[in-house]
Amino acid sequence: MDQDGNTHQAMEFLGIARYMIRPDEDTYAILLEGWANEGNVISATQTFAEMLMEIGWDPRNVSAYDTFLTTVIKGPDGIGEAMKFFAAMKERQCYPGMNFLKAAIEECERKGDGKDALLLWEAMVGGQGCKPDTEMYNSMITVQCHVMDSALAKRLLDEMVYNGAFPDSQTYNVLFHFVIKNRRLNEASPIFTEMIKNECVPSHSNCSLAVRIFMEGGDPHMAIKIWKCMIGNYKSDLKETGNLLVVGLLDDNRVPEAVKYAVDMIDRWIKLDSSTLSKLKQSLTYAGKAFVYDVLLRKWKTR
């Protein structure tokens, strides 16, 4: 009866039928599914309590536990209430399934709750051998980056393939953004190398941020690698980052490289700012190569 959204009627029928036929796990699983479809947390909690009184705890009753917790997590204090019930289940070696784990990790991501996410992950993945998919790993990595635990986030990335999940562009971009934003350049370089090897491209915004942070961090080599990646994969909004790179190379006294990438920008129709041109002129004149600037300027004027 609950398939038509009439879970209340199903409960009323159970109240009459229980004196003739004892309800079993399937009975309560069906009722809990009905409350889940209706989003009725209060009635689901009452039915769950009744189920425990009637048939007790049973590790095989995964479907009922999964449906119940997935319903509870949608309530006002969803993750808090769900964690209380989960603790009671864990104590009795009764666990929910993957639907709850996925919903819980997504909720933890939304709230930035790294503690509960880790507790659930260790119990369900580490303890019960659940196999999360890539989407779940992405949520978990995002949570850990949010709480500044890059070591755990990187460990999650490394273990994905062992659980049959494979990193995608989102996986790498979340982690790459975190380490770049926090200027952990020694961690960012290998992540960038790995993501390119796996044909996952940093987002446009991550490329822009990375070029700037690597230049400010004294690593123009990596800044140039990321700039090459950026112009190889994006065709617009390149002006700001390109000018930043050229100016940064000039500030680092890498004049030949600055000229090289300035010319390349012109060839790609990426506009050099007047302030960048002025700095190029100053640096080339000081190096006794004003003629190089004249050639560059003529080329710029034809664009």
UniProtKB/TrEMBL annotation:
UniProt keyword annotations, A-Z: Repeat
Transmembrane annotation, as ranges: none
Pfam families: PPR_2 (PF13041)
Source organism, top-level taxon: Eukaryota
InterPro entries per the UniProt record, alphabetical: PPR/CCM1_RNA-binding (IPR051222), PPR_rpt (IPR002885), TPR-like_helical_dom_sf (IPR011990)
Repeat region (PPR), residues: 24-59, 133-167, 168-202
NCBIfam families (UniProt xref): PPR
PANTHER family from the UniProt entry: OS02G0711100 PROTEIN, TETRATRICOPEPTIDE REPEAT (TPR)-LIKE SUPERFAMILY PROTEIN-RELATED
Protein name listed in UniProt: Pentatricopeptide repeat-containing protein
Organism: Ilex paraguariensis (yerba mate)
Species lineage: Eukaryota, Viridiplantae, Streptophyta, Embryophyta, Tracheophyta
